[in-house]
Amino acid sequence: MDSPTDYKQAAIDQWTADPCGEVVAEGETGTRAYFESLLQSRDDYAHWMHDSLGYAQTAGLDVLDVGCGQGIDVTRYALAGARATGMDLTPRHVELARKHTTAMGLDVTIVEGDAESMPFADASFDRVSSNGVLHHTPDMPAALREIRRVLRPGGETRVIVYNRSSLHYWMNQVGYCGIVRGQLFQERSMAGVLSRGVEYSSTGARPLVRVYSPRQVRRMLNEAGFHDVSTTVRHFHAEDAVLTGILEKRVTALREQKTLDRIGRAAGWYVVGVGRR
Questions:
Q1: What is the reported pTM?
Q2: 161-190, pLDDT tens digit by residue?
Q3: CATH superfamily of 4-164+205-237+269-276
Q4: DSSP 226
């Protein structure tokens, strides 16, 4: 793929065939039972996202979720009392997010749009969130500038992207997939390795997947014009790194949430970036 347009079409192809999270949910897509299963699966996977995305702090605010997928975060914001809007590049995601928020009895706006060129007026929102999305867009700095544009003065953004400084990246993606399995030699780059295997695909779709260190995320937020910028690192499961996956059955601490959270805060798979306009 040579152009940003190709990368974006690859993302649409990926999540049209395999809507985000579908593999872990039960039931028929578009129904309340399916969506409640999806919500529970997210909580089981990443309990820390409630605090990191600050759902409880958004009552009465206009909140935009960039890359809303099937509607998990936009639903959490709406349930917390926010006036919530979701936006996604993939029409299938837009369709499902509308069905799911309707099934939940929520008054939520879901629109189709590109993070690098959003269909909203300047200063439209008090909070803009983007969870696990911007590492798939070709021009993340442009997306961050757009987030700042649609935020009101004093408004806040919270973005979550894959962490280049994580144990998962270095042990599983570089070490195991890249070197042991030979994918780095086949693909000729880590970009190819990540595109090939990070996201589940039933069709062989290869969306763009990038990783960013906390330092890179802080720099990009500052360059986009945000202030009071900070980052935290979260998320670790024993199977996220080859070594801890092997040791899990023998080391009791690796089955304890407090240990996993401690590792996650040092070398987890996600960087959470926060900035204020």
A1: 0.95
A2: 999 999 999 999 999 999 999 999 999 999
A3: Vaccinia Virus protein VP39 (3.40.50.150)
A4: -
